[in-house]
Specification:
Blueprint lengths: L2 H9 L4 H14 L11 H7 L3 H6 L1 H17 L9 H12 L1
Helix pairs in contact: 1-2, 1-3, 2-5, 3-6
Length: about 100
């Protein structure tokens, strides 16, 4: 599955248990992995997964936090052609 397939299915809440670890592997290799919309759209989709999933899978939550730390190191995401405000809105929501 490519980033777009994962993005769409995760936004539809399909196969979350199986697809989230796959998506995180993509994001660990490239935190701004891009589906059809913009660099980082896969990360935005992953961070929209319901909070209950992350509570039930703390190991996956730690992986997502590691991806977020990699995004932080990138600085201004606009410099990477990614929508800084959109991605940081999802990061902030995920962390709250």
């Amino acid at each position: 599955m490519d980033a777009e397939d994962l993005r769409v299915l995760l936004l539809q809440q399909e196969g979350v248990e199986v697809l989230t670890p796959v998506a995180l592997t993509h994001l660990e290799q490239n935190p701004l992995a891009e589906g059809a919309f913009y660099p980082g759209d896969l990360l935005a989709a992953v961070l929209k997964i319901p909070r209950t999933y992350w509570h039930q899978h703390p190991d996956q939550g730690q992986r997502a936090s590691g991806v977020i730390k990699a995004v932080e190191r990138l600085g201004n995401l606009n410099d990477h052609n990614a929508p800084h405000a959109t991605i940081w809105q999802e990061i902030t929501r995920f962390r709250s």
